[in-house]
Amino acid sequence: MSQRLLVVDDEQSIVTLLQFNLEKSGYEVVTAMDGKAGLELARTQSFDLIVLDLMLPEIDGLDVCKQLRQSKILTPILMLTAKDDEFDKVLGLELGADDYMTKPFSPREVVARVRAILRRSGQQNVVSVQEEAEEFAQLIKFGEVEIYPENYEVYYRKKALELTPKEFELFLYLANNKGRVLTRDQLLNAVWNYEFVGDTRIVDVHISHLREKIEPNTKKPVYIKTIRGLGYKLEEPQLNV
Fold first, then answer.
1. Among candidates 77, 80, 89, which has minimal Cα distance to 199?
2. Its pTM surpasses 0.85
3. Among the ranges given (38-42, 63-67, 126-130, 149-153), the one the predictor scored with the smallest mean pLDDT
């Protein structure tokens, strides 16, 4: 069964180009030409990934992304933009996008990026991180957190957490390296294994999201510690915390 993709862009030439190349690669593609239509489709139909332009009529891409995440729709989002602007990039990721591409781009690059995101987001396809987790096949437990790698599930205080694919992969990598100081570049290379070299703010954004979900006090984290000047380290918290 083909994986279903939603492409939302207001430029017909880009929609046609993406649809042709993605369908040629074996995906089923549904398209929308404005943010309102794209949001409605994403809310009422099931997709494996959404390719979402930033600048859209009716509702812009950032707002579409924000509304989907607020609605607990965690479909991976690849955001497109004509702006080469780091602020837009970080903001999109903060709102829940999984990846980001700047126009102009080659169709081949988009297909490769889509494949990479789908590979990471699939329950049994968290490639490099999942392989590292094989020795923990059933459960990784620390403090009040439980991670079930094979089921793609994380529980905090016995309550299931809703993590994006990227948050899950980052958390699993930290857990598999518990007690080790990991630099931002190490995390960037392990979880975002292409084309984000040097843009370590992406790591900081996702660490912040994880802390909001597992730390009793985000200003005094007990699980994911910041090691000043180096990076981050996941620790076993004290039982009385």
1. 89
2. no
3. 126-130
- Answer for the pair 140, 175: CB distance below 8 angstroms, yes or no: yes
Residue type, 229: G
Q: How confident is the model at residue 189, as a pLDDT?
A: 83
Strands (E), the chain: 4-8, 28-32, 49-53, 77-81, 99-102, 140-142, 145-148, 153-156, 159-160, 182-183, 224-227, 231-234
- For the domain made up of 4-121, give the CATH fold: Rossmann fold (3.40.50)
Tell me the per-residue pLDDT of 56-78, one tens digit each, with 9 for 90 and over: 999 999 999 999 999 999 899 99
The CATH number that domain 127-234 falls under is: 1.10.10.10
Measured from the Cβ of residue 83, the count of other Cβ atoms closer than 10 Å reads: 12
Q: Copy the structure tokens of residue 48.
A: 């494996």
Residues in contact with 4: Cβ distance below 8 Å, sequence separation at least 6, in sequence order: 27, 28, 29, 30, 45, 46, 47, 48
